[in-house]
Amino acid sequence: MTNNDILRRIRYTFDFSDPKMVEIFSAADFVTTREDIHSWLLKDDDTAFKKCKDREMAAFLNGFINYRRGKKEGAQPEIEKRLNNNAIFMKLKIALNLKAEDVIEIMALAEFNISKHELSALFRKADHKHYRECGDQVLRNFLVGLQLRHRPTT
Length: 154
Prior knowledge:
Oligomer: single chain
Structural class: mainly alpha
Strand content: under 5%
Largest sheet: none
Radius of gyration: 15 Å
Shape: globular
Helix content: 55-70%
């Protein structure tokens, strides 16, 4: 999955407006414009489309954590230069204050079954012997489950 796809899905799931997206970025002390956000949300074949880089995605996710849970006292965490699916999944889990059982329930909404042990392997450090890389399918199903939970179809 691309950062642009993830950003589009999160925006749709939580029904964020352009000003709200700018506010979320600024919650991580990252300056962006409405035009930047608009160009990241366009379809890939649009001429005004811009690729959302890892640094920008990390800033959005850090801002999403601050927006949902409140800003921590003191210095803000460093915005990562490189992101992978595991880091994105972890940041979303933190922002939404989800426990393992909640994540499993969300995945089940998308008809994707994952055990608690498989899930914990995704949230381990990369050098841990039981670490498992989060594939696009796992992240995509989590985002689909989130959408079904927060924006159920009528």
